[in-house]
Structure of AraC family transcriptional regulator:
Amino acid sequence: MQPEAYCFHRSFDPAGPSEFQTDRHYLLYALEGTLRLEADGKRWTLPPARAALICANHPVTITVLSRLTSASVLFSPAFMGPPDQILSVFDMTPLARELVKACREWGPDSGPLSPFATRIFGTLAEVVVHLSAHPSKCVLPMPVSPALKAAVQLTEDRAHDSPTFDEIARLTHQSSRALARRFASEMGMTWREVLRRIRIMNAVEALAMSDAPVTQIALRVGYGSLSGFNAAFRDCMQMSPTEYRASLRR
């Protein structure tokens, strides 16, 4: 019989999208490697600085972008009450990271938790529930209609270059006015906001997965100047690209 809470510590090779669901509340966290997570019509990037708290029995789609070492923690509903949000992605604090590290001692076959282990897992549960109340803003709503899906996909494909809104509309056989309405109604964002969010999410993945200079990453994701890239990144992530990369190394 599995304990009320345990840590799942394992390595994975890069893999395409796959659906995942468990009957336990799930703290999805990677010590190394980067994930892409899709659920509830939204998409997030999860480098080692970020985690997701997912309610039991809630399906998510996971893509492993680079070789991954997971140290995720599963809580039975009897041990931890349902989080306030069905799914929340948030930045991990040093305290949360150390608690996950301590929990690695107890896996699915460790048997009943000792009083000490119960306190460790209980403290972690309280910490991540608190952190989940302040979710990351680096999220991309997913389009619904085929017309908007085509426009967003083309925007992603050309994000590294200099696409224009009128060009995206023309190549997806839509009027600029109709496409603007679709972005507003389905994603709650303008096309330019979506383009910027795509570029920043691509930059987050690049910062996590490589040691390339920040200037090179800025150019790679579509920014013509380092100052423009730094300003856009800070606006979304509340820190500079250099500070964000440093947070991944801690």
